[in-house]
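User: My collaborator sent over this chain with a note saying "see what the structure looks like." That's all I know about it. Can you take a look?
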Amino acid sequence: MSKRVFLIVLDSYGVGELPDADKFGDVGANTLKTCVTSDKFKADTLTMLGLFNIDGVNYAPSFSLPMASFGKCAERSMGKDTTTGHWEICGAVSEKAMPTYPNGFPKEIIDEFEKQTGRGTLVNATYSGTQVINDYGDEHVKTGKLIVYTSADSVFQIAAHEDVVPVEQLYEYCKIARNILVGEHGVGRVIARPFIGTSGNYQRTPRRHDFSLMPPTTILNVMKDAGLDVISIGKIYDIFAGSGLTESNPTTGNKNGMEMLDKMIERDFSGLCFANLVDFDMLYGHRRDIDGYANATAEFDSWLSKFMSKLTLDDTLIITADHGCDPAYTKHTDHTREYIPLLWYTRGGTANNLHVRETYADIGKTIADHFGLVEKANEAGLAGESFLEDVTFQVSEYARFRK
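Assistant: Without extra context I'll predict from the sequence alone. Here is the result:
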C-alpha cells in the first residue's frame, strides 16, 4: 500500500477566539463550546482522538489515553474566511487582508459587470444569502436582473433562479466578474448562488460554484511537482482554482463528502486526499443553528469511527478546520476569528500534545516533511514549522515500549 494522507477540514469548526478576535468583532466566539451545549452533540470518536485534550478546550471531559496527537493552530493571515484559512493550511499566509465591501461594490465595478453581462443588478449590499433571495427573488424573476451581494468575507456573490438564468450561464457571469475583480478589487471568491422555487418558497441548490483568485504556491503544487497524487473532495478545487491538484471530486454536502472519502480509502494512491465538509459552515454556522451543527458533528463522528477502521499502517489522518462560525454568536452571522483544532492520527503512532501552533501553515509543512519534501517547501517559500518528530513513533521509543 502506498503512503497516503487524508486531510479533512471540518468547515468552520473553530475551538475558541484568537487573541486578536477584538479586531474582527469576534470577542467571546467559540464554535465548539457552543455546540457542546446542545443535546444533539455526540463526539465519542473525536473525544478518543483527543479533541478535548487540546489546550483550553476544557468544556467537555478529556480522554485519558488519546489516540492521536492533538493541538490547535492560530491564524497568521489577515482574515477569517475559507480562502485565507485553506491557503494558510497549505503554507501561503495572506499578510494583507483581501478587500471587503460592507457598503457594496463601487459603481464602476457594477457598471462594468452589467455592461459585460448585458443584465442589470439588484441589491449590491451585505446580505444573508437565504434572506436576499426571499427579499429580492420575485423582482429577479420578473426582471431578469442578477442579485449581487456580499458578506463580511471577501466575496462577490451572484444569485439567480435556475429557470431565469441557467446554471451554466450563471457560471459564465461569475467568470466575467472574476476577470473584473482583480488588483485592488481582487476579492477572494466570486460565488455562483443558484436557487429554485416559487415566491415565498425560494431555496438555494447544491450547484453553488466558487471562482477563487489563483493562489500563490502551496504544498499542493510542491507535491504535484514531485509526482504525488493530490486529490480534492468538495470545494477544495474551487478554493485553490485547481492549482496543484491532480483530481477533483465535487460534492453536494457532508454526506456526499464522506461517501467520497469512503471510495478514496479503497484506492491505492500515493499522496494527499484533501477534503472539505462544508455543511458545518454553510447550513448551520451562518444560519446560527446550534442543534443542526451539533447533529452534523454526531453524524461525522459516527462515520469517522468506521473510516478509521479502514486506515492502514501507512496512512495518516488529519482533522482540522479553516476558521470559526459560532452558531450562538449574536453580533453578526459571519465567520468568527478562532483557533482551529489539530488532530494527527496514525495507527500505532504517538499521541503527543502539540500545544498551540503559531500558524495553520504548520500542518502543510508537516505534510511536506512526511513526504520528504520539506526542503522543496522551504525553497518555495512556504510558511510553517514541521512537527513531524512529535507525531512520529521513533525506533528508540518502540524499543523502550518493548522493554
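A starting point for your reply to your collaborator: The chain has two domains: 4-96+214-402, 107-212.
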